[in-house]
Design brief:
The complex is a heterodimer of chains A (about 180) and B (about 290). Chain A contains nine helices and two strands, in the order H-H-H-H-E-E-H-H-H-H-H. Chain A has about 180 residues and is mainly alpha-helical. The longest helix of chain A is centred in the C-terminal third of the chain and has 18 residues. Chain A starts with a helix and ends in a 5-residue tail after the last helix. Chain B is globular. The chains are: A mainly alpha (about 180), B mainly beta (about 290).
Chain lengths: ~180, ~290
């Protein structure tokens, strides 16, 4: 039971981007070695992407998207490594990626085989920050819906319990409220 | 129809229209020998899900990191709730058999619940002839204007629903989730008698009283549910809020009216026309406060 709880906590932290680069690598290795765990995380990731409006790509598109992202984006798993500057030519400079980035990039390609993971992991840290901000409760606008939302919810709840309401109580609840 | 929704296993895709906006969701219902699992999942917009397992309902809102939980000792479906005893509403509504219509490639029969006055909405149900499950639902004004509508675009009765379909676990609700468990607060006889009603519209009577917590920071409000057996109106009295001027609002089929009452705020809200809301509000008295109007 304790192991199950720890695994669930790990998945939750991984999805929320709360793990350190080392912990993320370890979590990925565990996922890649456990098909059932990989499937669960795939489902959670689909949900996470759906709520951020990211199109959920079919499995066979992941490889090409990972490859493209590897070329254009620094991986968020990159540690705070020292970047060596090397000069080349007259007045020009060339930045060499730390060796560890290459190893991490390779592990990212492997993760891509697990379906939708790669898109999340290859987003930049700044993007993760803005994504995390989306998890905060949005500021309610002074619209009738916002002001009366709690009242309406309690009304739907109580009338549903009373069995009197000929209506779509839960359809109203799950229907999208435009921001 | 109510019995069919509660006892039949089925899967459906539903289109829901309200206030000019269309949403789609999936409904899964699995009924076993001693259990019932039901799921209602949004298919567009933010991912939202309602889960029901026997008497416990959980509402998940991943976009807002919120979850609502609570027990519902009632056999209504997550899809559509209808009264158990229709004869109780006959003094105020007529039940009219309408025409047949084909929806989702299935034959249905319209049943119209027509109010006898203009204090309630009209509700139309298209019922699948074979399964008795709902195929279509309309909520209409007396003028005929559609306020809310639901259409089943795909129905698979007894098929495609296995126990495993309804057993998918939601994402773990970690520490960053705001999980709210709805529960009534302790109440006293004095709380219950604080609100009194006179000259209510025909058929409406107080049915339930609760003292509930709402808002952030949380505050306690008195909540009375009025009903005619089919339509319902809620009255809230909040002693911590005030409002200078009365206000009205319309949210699709729901109308509301708010005004100051004594040292608090009175809110009347329900799935009824605005004239009904105003009529209810007019006849409310608050103890220790002079009757308004």
């Amino acid at each position: 039971m304790r192991d199950v709880v720890q695994v669930e906590e790990m998945l939750s932290a991984l999805i929320d981007g709360e793990l350190s680069p080392e912990e993320t690598s370890a979590a990925l290795e565990k996922i890649m070695s456990d098909a059932a765990l990989a499937e669960r995380w795939r489902r959670y990731e689909i949900i996470r992407q759906a709520l951020h409006g990211v199109p959920v790509a079919p499995r066979n598109e992941i490889g090409s998207r990972v490859a493209m992202a590897l070329q254009t984006e620094p991986t968020i798993l990159a540690p705070q490594a020292t970047v060596r500057h090397a000069s080349g030519g007259h007045g020009t400079s060339r930045i060499a990626a730390p060796r560890r980035w290459v190893a991490i990039a390779a592990s990212m390609a492997a993760v891509a085989l697990l379906a939708t993971f790669g898109v999340q992991l290859l987003q930049s840290r700044s993007h993760i920050t803005s994504v995390a901000a989306l998890f905060q409760t949005p500021t309610e606008a002074a619209t009738p819906h916002a002001l009366l939302a709690d009242y309406l919810d309690m009304h739907n709840d109580l009338s549903y319990s009373a069995g009197t309401q000929g209506s779509l109580r839960y359809a109203r609840l799950v229907s999208h409220v435009p921001r | 129809m109510r019995h069919a929704m509660n006892s039949a296993s089925y899967e459906a895709t539903v289109v829901y229209w309200k206030e000019g906006q269309i949403d789609t969701f999936s409904v899964l219902n699995h009924v076993g020998p001693h259990m019932r699992r039901e799921r209602l999942i949004a298919l567009n917009g933010p991912l939202r899900e309602i889960r029901r397992e026997n008497g416990e309902i959980t509402c998940l809102f991943p976009d807002a990191r919120k979850a609502l939980a609570g027990k519902k000792f009632d056999a209504n479906s997550l899809l559509l709730s209808v009264p158990e005893k229709l004869d109780a509403i006959l003094p105020f509504y007529d039940l009219v058999m309408g025409e047949s219509e084909r929806v989702a490639d299935r034959a249905g029969q319209w049943v119209q619940v027509v109010p006898r006055d203009d204090m309630r909405y009209r509700r139309n149900f298209l019922i699948d002839i074979e399964t008795r499950l709902p195929l279509k639902y309309e909520l209409r004004q007396a003028t005929g204007e559609v306020l809310e509508q639901m259409v089943v675009v795909r129905l698979d009765p007894q098929q495609g629903v296995s126990q495993s379909d309804t057993e998918d676990q939601p994402p773990p609700l970690g520490g960053s989730w705001d999980v709210k468990v709805r529960a009534a607060l302790p109440q006293s006889a004095q709380d219950q008698s604080r609100l009194s009603f006179q000259s209510l519209p025909a058929g409406f009577h107080p049915m339930m009283f609760m003292r509930e917590e709402m808002g952030s920071p949380p505050r306690q409000v008195n909540h009375v549910l009025l009903t005619d057996g089919f339509s319902s109106v809620s009255v809230y009295f909040d002693e911590t809020e005030v409002m200078e001027k009365p206000s009205v609002a319309r949210m699709g089929a729901v109308n509301s009216y708010r005004r100051r009452a004594g040292n608090g705020l009175l809110t009347v809200l329900g799935d009824v026309p605005m004239r009904t809301i105003r009529a209810v509000a007019k006849g409310i008295s608050i103890a220790d406060s002079a009757k308004h109007e």
